[in-house]
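Final report, Chapter 2: Outcomes

The project's central promise was a pipeline that accepts a single protein chain and returns its three-dimensional structure in a standardized token representation, suitable for archiving and comparison. That pipeline is now operational. To close this chapter, we reproduce one record exactly as it appears in the project archive, with the input sequence first and the structure output second.
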Amino acid sequence: MEMRIACYIPDDYSFIHVQSALRGAGLICRRFPSETSLMRALQEDSFELILFSADSHSVNEENLNSWLNSCAEKSIPLVLLSSECSAEQVVLALDAGADDLISPSCNPIVLVARLQAILRRSHCANTRRLIELSGFSLDLESSRLLDNGVEVELTPREFKIAWLLFSSFGTYLTRETISMAIWGVGSEITNRTIEQHVYKLRKKLKLGEERGLQIRTAYTNGYCLEYCKSESKKSVDRSAGSAPAFAARHG
């Protein structure tokens, strides 16, 4: 199936860089000369993802929010491109409703990997306010998480962490990102505090081999919600009596 991506990237150099990366991955990139022309095309055509430059002088907080709301209504993932990609800016963009904030000069391999991860997640989410995955259902409006129709009692912070992990399925979230998203900029939250919240979330959701989902922890990368790798478990079982084998790259 052909994946079509709509782009509003005024800077020629940035567009060529992005277009080249996407073309190498078999992704079709259609460039629009203005915000108006892109908006008009969205009414007449369909796209799997929108790349929108936040560096443009015409972009301000008001019309950016308008774009975010428009994309949410159409259930189209929106990725912002910005030369300023500090941790704070990334968190603010995600909190506003964008699916990611990426530098236009990002490594082509990393750029494609992040966009493909977003495209995969978009097929799992019914809307930007509802996520359904492996029997779990998360409703952002009510801050409720259901496990096969049964509500799981979570604290507000536990639900926020769950939402971050489920909405970023397959992608590592750093401890800094989680800290800023949950506790806010400038908060001095220790790694131990985050570990405790993740530990309780694992227990309440009963994640593991039996469920087929796990929250993987990597010291340098943070936390990632992913499917359990049954084949890795089998290889570990076969190697019983010898030195333990790692079940994943970052385990």
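Archive annotation: The domain at 127-238 is CATH 1.10.10.10 (Arc Repressor Mutant, subunit A).
This record, like all others produced under the grant, will remain available to the consortium after the project formally closes.
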